[in-house]
Design brief:
Elements: H1 2-6, E1 9-15, H2 22-30, E2 37-43, H3 48-58, E3 65-69, H4 76-85, E4 91-94, E5 100-101, H5 105-115, E6 120-126, E7 136-137, E8 140-141, E9 151-154, H6 155-160, H7 172-183, E10 189-197, E11 201-202, H8 214-226, H9 234-254, H10 261-287, H11 298-307, H12 311-328
Parallel strand pairs: 1-2, 1-4, 2-3, 6-10
Antiparallel strand pairs: 4-9, 5-10, 6-8, 6-9, 7-11
Length: 341
Amino acid sequence: MNNQLEQSISVVVCTYNLRPSLAKLLESLNHQTYKNFELILVDNGPFEENRKHINLLCQHYHYPIKIISLNQNSGPGIGRNFGVKHASFNAIAFTDDDCIPDENWLEVIKREIIEHHKQIIAGNIYSKIPPSPPFIHAFYISSKVFITANAAFSKQWFEQIGGFDEYLNDWAEDFEIAEKSKLNGIDFDFIEDLHVNHPPVLKKYKITDHLMSYRFLKKYFYIIKYKKYQYKHYLLLQTTKKALLKIWLFIFFSLLPLPHFFINFSIPFLILMVHSTIKVIKVNKLIHTYPFNNSITLKNFVYYILTFWAIDLLNFAYITSFLIYANIFSTSYHPRKSDVK
């Protein structure tokens, strides 16, 4: 009996608002070649009706499933930590409710965590077509990047390093736990044959989805001020680089001896819009290679062409002014318990 417990795996998945993709995940777990596992399904939403549907969905499968609820959208860090507390076994596997692990996924995790006694691992995440933001949300991760959609821990090590930071989200909690593990003496191992499929999703472009929110910037300042990320300034550097390239483009054409200032000002606009138009043409070709359930309208493509050039400039202005202000009043930006959601 003890040997069976030692050889078993707890799969922890957070789900919110009953994503249609959850059914595909449950089916993929049903086809795993390694059968000694349980699923800890954390319902991260407050909707009673969704809970009933989740229960009905899970009744079709005969592997052990624990459905636990947080009764609110508490974020991935809190949800995953809550799931690990309810895990029965030392080997903990993580994926997301919009992913489909390959059939040997748990077999590889058993080999690495249980047989080779590794403490933290991650693997490849792939989509059948390449990502093309902002329209096609997809993955192609085949290098040493830690993403919780395809990761595993020993429960002992996970608890020893304190689990996920419950204040962070938007992948920041993934990078944080990997950095924390490394700082505590164990870097994660990237396992080449550990594969998870992330089916591509077609998204309508909205400018508000790409502008940094006040809530996001509070969390980013928290990372810069209180965390020891190796790459904690990466976002600031990337945003600054993109914005400065566009600013220099405008400056360069404004200094040219052209007949009218309006022409000086119009040329960089046209260059940026042509760049966006080329992107739209490439995206449109990709859309026709995959059977998406929805489509992108011409109106949305035009909206993207007219506005996307300004996003980096707006984010650069917002992030620099916020960081200056937050550094002056830094004590106001340490997360309180009420902020951890």
